[in-house]
Amino acid sequence: xxxxxxxxxxxxxxxxxxxxxxxxxxxxxxxxxxxxxxxxxxxxxxxxxxxxxxxxxxxxxxxxxxxxxxxxxxxxxxxxxxxxxxxxxxxxxxxxxxxxxxxxxxxxxxxxxxxxxxxxxxxxxxxxxxxxxxxxxxxxxxxxxxxxxxxxxxxxxxx
Length: 159
Fold this sequence. Notes:
By secondary structure, the protein is an alpha/beta fold. It is 31% helix and 32% strand. Strand 5 and strand 6 (134-142) form a beta hairpin.
C-alpha cells in the first residue's frame, strides 16, 4: 500500500475514535446517592447526574398550571446488599424518610406529576444540581410501590 492510503486510513480511524469518545463523554451520567452528591459539591454542580433517594411525602407540591413539581428526597442506600441487610427496600425507604438527620435535596421537575409519586417511594432522577443546591430533574422515575407492598402493606397504601 502507498503511504498516502495508510496515512488517510489512519486519519479516518482517529477521527472516528475521537467522535465515539466525545459522544460517550457528553452523554455520560454519574449515578449517585444524595450523600455521595452532597459530598462532591461544588465539583458536581452543573454536571449531568442520576441520583436516587426516598421521597419525603409532606414536601410534595405540584402546580398544574405551570406543571412544576417540587419535592425533597432523603438519602437512602442504593447498594442491594445493604438494602437487604437493613430489612429490604420498604424498610430502608421508611427509615430514610423518618430520620431528620439524613441529608436531603430539593428536586424541581417540570412535567406531568407521576401517579406513583408519594411518600416513601424510591425516586431516581436525571438532571443537574444548581449552585443553590437544588436538583433540576429532566427525567423522573419512581420505584413501583407494589414491589414492596408485601413487606409493609400499610406503607404502600398511604399517600
